[in-house]
């Protein structure tokens, strides 16, 4: 995650549901173009590519916009649910 | 054991859900509203502009208590190139009226207030609860919702889906299809705090006056999108959004990098100077227009607001459509409730008629061809024309010893060089889509 986005997310409030991330990337050898695109499209910089080229997610900074769900809808690589009630991002201003 | 059956369950507490729940509770219906956030507004993101009329229909004296930021006296529309902007500004003292027409608001605060009115009207609101699915009877009629709380769920005669653009309940229940990347924009936004006097002097405003800037042009790097800057009392909301299909296909940069460039643009930089950024948010906006509106009613359910794709992207209106659709759905349900009629698909069809008779569907229909036109003409409109316009303005306003006729010819030649006969076609296409 770049500093660009990390500094921003630092301003936000989150209640992280520890051990229960609301988004999963299914294990894969080679990610689809759609999933790879999420590395730059995700506004919270949640996605990154590891040394083997696989795409990973750390959803702690997720703002629950749903963009990755829409982009990867046909690839089956993302399992997306809203966080449990009361968890996730908490906007002070919105 | 007797289970409680509410007259209606409202899923979500944004402008659409709050409007629906408020209207029904106010009419004496037994309403349960379910919100996944800690409070109404904690998950909600908007620019944000409040359009008085839509709220006045329900709460005529809302100005007395609602947390409002500034009423808008000046609108700036900018076509931007890399170095500057050419635009239209409209300002009038007439907007300093007793009952102003538009306000900037901060959604987390406004929604909390609106939701308080919902509770005061008698609705039960359940927070920190995510609706996970619909309950149906053997015939398929929706009879309630399942949540992530323990227990069998909650029952009602009708479920109002006000779950927002990323509405998983309706979609996973097969009530509507998945959003197409071409039909949604991803917008990112920051809240920048500045002393009130600084904002007022920078924008030439006093008291509660406010300014709105809507911008398009090279700031979205040829992608279909727009940017905005709104003045609040002690803060500035600034954001930019592009269609998801463009962002994911083009792969030029991240949304926050677009926002950084917009903030650093010579036309914007000085307005934000010295500000403190206190929040960063992202949200999808349904921009597919009329053709992207899904099925709106079924046996035991009705759909309102962003979940129903009710956004007028051309005019940057959404919250007013959300409030109006929420209210109209509620009025449809109230009528059925009073007649003792079941909320079947057929009976709820009256909602569609109410929508057709209102500004909501009339406006949605008016601009139904705009998304398609943009899909084809996107980079011309977002990049070529803003550059041409700013170039033409410079040619026209610089005094450099050349005669005006030569300058006129130069402007025409520049446009001809870039678009040729396409100019004519573009004009026709725009006129057709706008009609």
UniProtKB/TrEMBL annotation, chain A:
* Matching Pfam families: Fer4_ETF_QO (PF05187)
Q: Which UniProt keywords apply?
A: Electron transport, Iron, Iron-sulfur, Metal-binding, Nitrogen fixation, Transport
Recorded hits in InterPro entries, A to Z, give: 4Fe4S_Fe-S-bd, ETF-QO/FixX_C, Fd_FixX
Which parts of the chain are coiled coil? none
Highest taxon, organism lineage: Bacteria
Q: Say yes or no: keyword Iron-sulfur present.
A: yes
The 4Fe-4S ferredoxin-type domain covers which part of the protein?
Answer: 53-83
What the record says about family reads:
To ferredoxins from P.putida and C.tartarivorum, ferredoxin I from A.vinelandii, ferredoxin II from D.desulfuricans.
Q: What does this protein do?
A: Could be a 3Fe-4S cluster-containing protein.
Q: What is this protein called?
A: Ferredoxin-like protein
TrEMBL record, chain B:
Keyword Flavoprotein listed: yes
State the UniProt keywords alphabetically: FAD, Flavoprotein, Monooxygenase, Oxidoreductase
Instruction: Pinpoint the FixC-like C-terminal domain residues.
Output: 371-435
GO MF entries: monooxygenase activity
Keyword Flavoprotein set for record: yes
Q: Which InterPro entries match?
A: FAD/NAD-bd_sf, FixC-like, FixC-like_C
Cofactor requirements of the protein: FAD
Record's family? Belongs to the ETF-QO/FixC family.
Described by its record, this protein's role is as follows: Could be required for the formation of a functional nitrogenase Fe protein. Probably accepts electrons from FixA/FixB and reduces a quinone.
Q: Under what name is this protein listed?
A: Protein FixC
> From what organism does this protein derive?
Acetobacter lambici
């Amino acid at each position: 995650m770049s500093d660009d986005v990390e500094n921003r997310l630092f301003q936000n409030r989150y209640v992280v549901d520890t051990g229960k991330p609301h988004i999963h990337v299914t294990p894969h050898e080679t990610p689809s173009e759609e999933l790879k695109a999420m590395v730059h499209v995700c506004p919270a910089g949640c996605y990154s590519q590891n040394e083997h080229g696989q795409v990973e997610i750390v959803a702690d900074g997720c703002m629950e916009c749903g963009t990755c769900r829409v982009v990867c809808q046909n690839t089956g690589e993302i399992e997306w649910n809203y966080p449990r009630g009361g968890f996730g991002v908490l906007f002070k201003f919105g | 054991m007797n289970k409680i059956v509410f007259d209606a369950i409202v899923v979500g507490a944004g402008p659409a859900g709050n409007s629906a729940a408020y209207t029904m509770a106010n009419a004496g219906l037994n309403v349960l509203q379910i919100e996944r956030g800690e409070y109404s507004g904690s998950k909600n993101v908007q620019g944000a502009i409040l359009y008085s009329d839509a709220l006045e229909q329900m709460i005529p004296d809302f100005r007395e208590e609602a947390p409002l930021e500034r009423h808008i006296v000046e609108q700036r529309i900018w076509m931007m190139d890399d170095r500057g902007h050419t635009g239209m500004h409209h300002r009038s003292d007439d907007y300093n009226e007793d009952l102003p027409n538009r306000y900037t608001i901060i959604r987390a605060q406004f929604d909390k207030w609106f939701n308080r009115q919902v509770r005061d009207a008698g609705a039960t609101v359940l927070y920190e609860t995510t609706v996970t699915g619909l309950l149906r009877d053997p015939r398929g009629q929706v009879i309630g919702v399942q949540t992530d709380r323990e227990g069998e769920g909650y029952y009602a005669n009708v479920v109002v889906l006000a779950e927002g653009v990323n509405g998983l309940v309706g979609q996973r229940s097969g009530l509507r299809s998945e959003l197409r990347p071409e039909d949604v924009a991803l917008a990112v936004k920051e809240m920048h705090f500045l002393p009130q006097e600084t904002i007022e002097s920078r924008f030439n405003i006093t008291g509660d006056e406010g300014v709105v800037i809507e911008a398009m042009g090279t700031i979205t790097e040829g992608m279909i999108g727009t940017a905005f800057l709104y003045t609040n009392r002690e803060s500035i909301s600034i954001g930019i959004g592009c269609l998801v299909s463009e962002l994911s296909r083009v792969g030029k940069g991240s949304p926050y990098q677009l926002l950084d460039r917009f903030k650093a643009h010579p036309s914007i930089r000085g307005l934000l100077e010295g500000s403190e950024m206190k929040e960063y948010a992202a949200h999808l906006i349904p921009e597919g227009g009329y053709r992207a509106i899904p099925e709106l009613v079924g046996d035991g359910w009705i759909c309102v607001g962003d979940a129903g794709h009710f956004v007028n992207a051309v005019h940057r209106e959404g919250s007013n459509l959300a409030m109006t659709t929420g209210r109209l759905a509620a009025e449809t349900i109230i009528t059925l409730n009073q007649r003792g009629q079941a909320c079947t698909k057929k009976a709820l069809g009256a909602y569609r008629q109410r929508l057709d008779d209102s500004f909501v569907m009339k406006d949605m229909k008016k601009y139904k061809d705009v998304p398609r036109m943009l899909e084809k003409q996107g980079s011309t409109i977002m990049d070529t024309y803003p550059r041409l316009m700013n170039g033409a303005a410079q040619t026209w306003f610089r005094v450099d010893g050349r005669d005006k006729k030569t300058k006129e010819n130069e402007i025409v030649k520049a446009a001809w060089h870039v678009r040729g006969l396409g100019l004519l076609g573009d004009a026709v296409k725009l006129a057709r889509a706008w009609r």
